[in-house]
Amino acid sequence: MFSHQLVKEANPILEAIFDHPFVKGIGDGHVDDAALKFYVQQDFQYLSEFIKIYASIIPILKDRENMKFFAENIDFILNSEIHPHHVFCDIANVTYESLQHATPSPKAYLYQSHMYRAVRTGSLANIICALLPCPWTYNEIAKQLTATGKNTADNPFKSWIDFYLTDDEDADGGLTQKLFKMLNELSKDMSEEEINEAKGFFLKSTELEWEFWEQAFYQQDWRFTEIIHGGDNHE
Ligand SMILES: Cc1ncc(CN)c(N)n1
């Protein structure tokens, strides 16, 4: 099955994500405030683009059930996925509102551009493959942290882990299963070339998930940040 192929090939990247110091820090209950703040700034911005990409799928869908599914996921990001951000903000002792005006860092910019590139192909399989590592890797992180005994009552990140652990229909766990199922259906009518193209989108997004943790952990912004951010202000 296509989904098994994707998970198998991406597995070394997923293992590297589990080993990332930011993710390990969530498990151990300590991540530097600067990394948490950088993460929330970038993720607020990233999820806003993610919403737009979900919305861009709707015109190429054929049935109402799938339209409802993507519309509900937009609602989930807007109204529920603010919770994990609040967890990070509370731990870093900073207001959420103060972190909502960032411009994308180089790696976040690359990740967003990658997703828009998938949208431009017009292929539903490519778009789902580019989007899926977002809910998939977080659900896997939550499961791995729980399985290794890190999701304890005294871990300040417990409610972050619990949020991504749930397999509820509309949360990342349920979403992941539904998207993998859609891909398996779509792949039945795809050529080998189309399969490989879609797989490329999935694997690159998975690596960009690793990069997202990395850039937040080391606060990797634009080298000429004053010039770049100044430029954004003049748009
Ligand atoms: C970059 C990123 N990837 C995944 C998730 C989890 N939906 C997130 N909030 N941000």
From TrEMBL:
CDD domains: TenA_C_SaTenA-like. The keyword tRNA-binding does not apply. Residues 9-218 form the Thiaminase-2/PQQC domain. InterPro entries: Haem_Oase-like_multi-hlx (IPR016084), Thiaminase-2/PQQC (IPR004305), Thiaminase_II (IPR027574), Thiamine_Salvage_TenA (IPR050967). It holds the Pfam family TENA_THI-4. It is an enzyme of class 3 (hydrolase). Pathway: Cofactor biosynthesis; thiamine diphosphate biosynthesis. Gene3D superfamilies: Heme oxygenase-like (1.20.910.10). Keywords: Hydrolase, Thiamine biosynthesis. Its EC number is 3.5.99.2. It comes from the Bacteria. It catalyses: thiamine + H2O = 5-(2-hydroxyethyl)-4-methylthiazole + 4-amino-5-hydroxymethyl-2-methylpyrimidine + H(+); 4-amino-5-aminomethyl-2-methylpyrimidine + H2O = 4-amino-5-hydroxymethyl-2-methylpyrimidine + NH4(+). The keyword Magnesium does not apply. Belongs to the TenA family. Catalyzes an amino-pyrimidine hydrolysis reaction at the C5' of the pyrimidine moiety of thiamine compounds, a reaction that is part of a thiamine salvage pathway. Homotetramer. This is Aminopyrimidine aminohydrolase. It comes from Apilactobacillus nanyangensis. The gene is tenA.
